[in-house]
User: Fold this.
Amino acid sequence: MTTYGSFPGTRPRRLRTNPVMRRMVAETRLHPANLILPAFVREGISEPVPISTMPGVVQHTRDSLRKAAAEAVAAGVSGIMLFGVPEESKKDALGTPGTDPDGILQVALRDVRAEVGDDLLVMSDVCLDETIDHGHCGVLDAEGRVDNDATLERYAEMAQVQADAGAHVVGPSGMMDGQVGVIRDALDQIGREDVGILAYTVKYASAFYGPFREAVASSLRGDRKTYQQDPANAREALRELALDLEEGADMVMVKPAGPYLDIVARVADAADVPVAAYQISGEYAMIEAAAEKGWIDRDQAILEALTGIRRAGASSILTYWATEVALKLKDQ
Ligand code: PBG
Assistant:
């Protein structure tokens, strides 16, 4: 037989012959412990409200959120990331519900901690877009620009009330300069050195956040390009990483995940802390929509997308499928 390179002596297909072989040689494994469930809780509703652009995801009531948290624990999920949606009439120019101890996010943090104790890492979003009337991630100055340093003061107070309400970990997601350092300081000042910071270190100005804006009833007009990163940039991500590590981030996140796997890989190479990636609303919606049309195999596509994010180097993945996937992984 003619030889072509090392063929026919070398045949990689031998390692793919059957499921047990493939399982043994798999280089990447997904485990329930890798998963974090993002969840929305809305004030003033008596039934969960479906989010039409994210089939299967709801805005929770306080009760249904507790239940979802308990289910996540039972499935072996590691964490839950909470987003609060206050009553529309309570939103204002400062995002006051975000620092009100009785604001929906703080109420939900207490509820969930009462439900899960330390069996689930309870995390909360530190950002103003859910509570502010214009929908930006920060407060505005007289010219209508997002005011970085004034916003930091709000974030500091938010992190403190979230810690008081029971957050194990806070997640600053607004991409303000200095946010990690200011929040670390604010937590330490109230004696909460124990509360961790999962920094949204690399967050791109992405079209794939679209469905999330419905989920949190955001009123944003315009875009977030003066604070979120340009999708064209990769070296800038490493600069953000260096800054967040200097400021005291315990874990760093890349977001979105799927379209930015090269960034996940570069950050994982460069970081000496755990790396998370957020598979966002649009990534979720694309798979659900294509599957609903019968164009792709839903379950396989979900596992493939999540495995890709793990393979790129993320040890934690925020995904709206966390509980469902964790249950499936448990059965295997
Ligand atoms: C900001 C925030 C956003 C998401 C999480 N935190 C929205 C944004 O930056 O526009 C998006 C999450 C998703 O799309 O699933 N608080």
In short: Residues 148-165 form the longest helix (18 residues).
